[in-house]
Amino acid sequence: GDFYASWMDEAKIAALGTAPLKPHLDRIAAITDKGELAELFATTGYPSPVGIAIFPDLAEPTKYGVYAGQGGLGMPNRDYYLLEGAKYDGYRAAYKAYLTRLQQLAGIADAAAKAERVFALETAIARVHWKPEDSRDVSKIYNPMDRAKLNAFAPQFHWDRSLPKAGLGDVKTIVITETTAVQEIGKLVDSVPLETWKEYEVAHFISGHASYLTKDFDQARFDFYSKTLRDVPNQRDR
């Protein structure tokens, strides 16, 4: 109820401006190495190129399992980054404009250049994502690994440090879904500069919380995700 009431209090949201973003953006800015970055990936509320989820174990559905798989894209799937043609060119241009607009609203310098770098990183992630039909193939996506195998498989995610941040420190086995994608994203964690990953975190954090910020942020998110991608012409009143 408190959460709903705070979202409905548009006058208070307007008065607060971008202040609610500051502690979170400061936390991102304070990251000094890739190990801390991996911990942030696993922290609730912050973006990650590899998603962690809990749902019934595909081999034994009477219990739950912890899964880790490909993620990290701001547009719906890999096709929006990779397919050729005027329609997808339009989506890509609109997405970069959206990332730029959000950062400008947040008072972030060099917003357009940062949006370009974030988009380039997401495109690299999209290139290693599995196609949807492969992600739906249960025989391919059920790959349980214990901690030792997990650390050898994709060490860039510092599982022993990051899983406790997700409240999963006692979990012994993780099911990796899109195996090659997770490994290749791990390689991107290694090869892409830390500052670019921090720019990615900032842009995605703002986007993920735009609906709870001032009207300009909320409208920018609606204009891209609803109007541009889904052809919804008008946003409903709160």
Structure description:
Strands 1-2-4-3 form a four-stranded mixed beta sheet. By secondary structure, the chain is an alpha+beta fold. It is built from 14 helices and four strands.
The SSE string, one letter per element, is HHHHEEHHHHHEHHEHHH
> Helix count?
14
Poorly predicted spans: none
Radius of gyration, in Å, reads: 19 Å
Biggest pleated-sheet summary: 4 strands, mixed
Structural class: alpha+beta
Q: State the share of residues found in helices, binned by percent.
A: 55-70%
Proportion of β residues?
5-15%
Between the first and last Cα atoms, what is the distance in angstroms? 15 Å
Shape summary: globular
Give the strand order, joined by hyphens, for the main sheet.
1-2-4-3
Give a quick precis of the structure.
The protein has 238 residues and is of the alpha+beta class.
Short descriptors:
globular; 58% helix; alpha+beta; 14 helices
Ordered list of secondary-structure elements with their pairings:
Blueprint: H1 2-8, H2 10-16, H3 22-29, H4 34-41, E1 50-56, E2 64-70, H5 79-82, H6 86-105, H7 111-128, H8 132-135, H9 138-141, E3 143-146, H10 147-153, H11 159-165, E4 173-176, H12 179-191, H13 194-208, H14 215-230
Parallel strand pairs: 2-4
Antiparallel strand pairs: 1-2, 3-4
Helix pairs in contact: 3-13, 4-11, 6-7, 6-14, 7-12, 7-13
